[in-house]
Amino acid sequence: MKLVIHHNTLFRYSQPLLYTVQSLHLWPVSSACQSVEYWELRVPGTLHSQPDIEGNRVHSFSLSARPEQDLRENSIAGRGTVLTHGVSEFTDPPTLPPPGFYLRSTPLAEPHPRMAMWALQVVPGLMAALARGELPSVADLVALAGAVGDKVQYRKGSTGVETTALEAFDWELGVCQDQAHVMVAVCRSIGLPARYVSGYFYAANEPDLASHAWADVCMDPVNRRWISLDVTHRCPTDERHIRLAAATDYSACLPIKGLRRGGGEESMAVDIRIGPWA
Fold first, then answer.
1. Are 25 and 255 in contact (CB under 8 A)?
2. Intervals of CATH 2.60.40.2250 along the chain
């Protein structure tokens, strides 16, 4: 599927902004899952590429107000066309970190014994296979994603960007970010490397999910084989999904992250529009 994406973010400030520097994970990368045919970022400054060990395209820019300038807005826009391939299973290239890198605990997706015990109960076949030293099956991993989706019911506004996987697991509420974090943390709890994926999701009847999140789970660490699973929709990813960035958790691949001086109170408005190529 060939999709056209427009992603606009507008920051407004109650007082003049003096200076800001921002880091962006807003440039999708071509892979087995997708081909980026065209992409551009428009920012009020010079865009600089940043190094990234996890295969993402990361940029930064800085903005300084001139002495006579009353700077109260900062606009960041990304747009382009991406051809999705409907691929959910893929092999990482050797340039990316080894799967074991994604077993370690991170602040938003920390493993926990209670999550491991829960997984044992809801998908006994998966746990039995792991106990025998066998690779997990796709069916069992999809079942686990479905169980996480049932456990952490989708409810907009029920959590915040700093909510941890264990909190969402215990509250049994969250949004796609929380569902992805719980999936990652559950997998790490039972010894499966997993990472958080940020991206876009196209569905004409679900505009709230245009900005989306899901999880990659490593099925075969030796051969670096992964499957990408959408917990919210309880299925492997398909041609509706566009990957922006993948990392240990959300805090490592925020679409926009920055520091500023001045500006007073800040507000942010995000508008994402996705549609098929006409």
1. yes
2. 2-85+254-276
The tens digit of pLDDT for each residue in 34-91 reads 999 999 999 999 999 998 999 999 999 999 988 888 999 999 999 999 999 999 999 9
Q: pLDDT tier at 29 (50, 70, 90 boundaries)?
A: very high
Tell me which residue has tokens 């929380």. Answer: 178
Query: pLDDT at residue 207 above 80?
Result: no
In the chain, residues under CATH classification 3.10.620.30 are 89-252
Residue 278 — very low, low, confident or very high, per pLDDT cuts 50/70/90? Answer: confident
User: What are the backbone dihedrals phi and psi of residue 153, each rounded to the nearest 5 degrees, phi first?
Assistant: -70, 135
- Say what the pLDDT of residue 227 is: 98
From residue 146, how far is each of 19, 153, 179, 203, 237 by CA, in Å?
A: 45, 11, 10, 20, 13
Determine the Cα–Cα distance for residues 10 and 134; give it in Å rounded to an integer. Answer: 49
Residues in the chain: 278
Query: Do the strands 194-201 and 256-262 form a parallel or antiparallel pair, or are they unpaired?
Result: unpaired
Report yes or no: 124 and 147 within 8 Å, Cβ to Cβ: no
Domain 89-252: top CATH class: alpha beta
pLDDT of amino acid 205: 79
Torsion of CA 67, 69, 74, 78, to 10 degrees: -90
End-to-end Cα spacing for the chain: 11
Q: 2-85+254-276 sits in which CATH class? A: mainly beta
Query: Which amino acid, one-letter code, is at 180?
Result: A
What percent of the chain has pLDDT above 70?
100
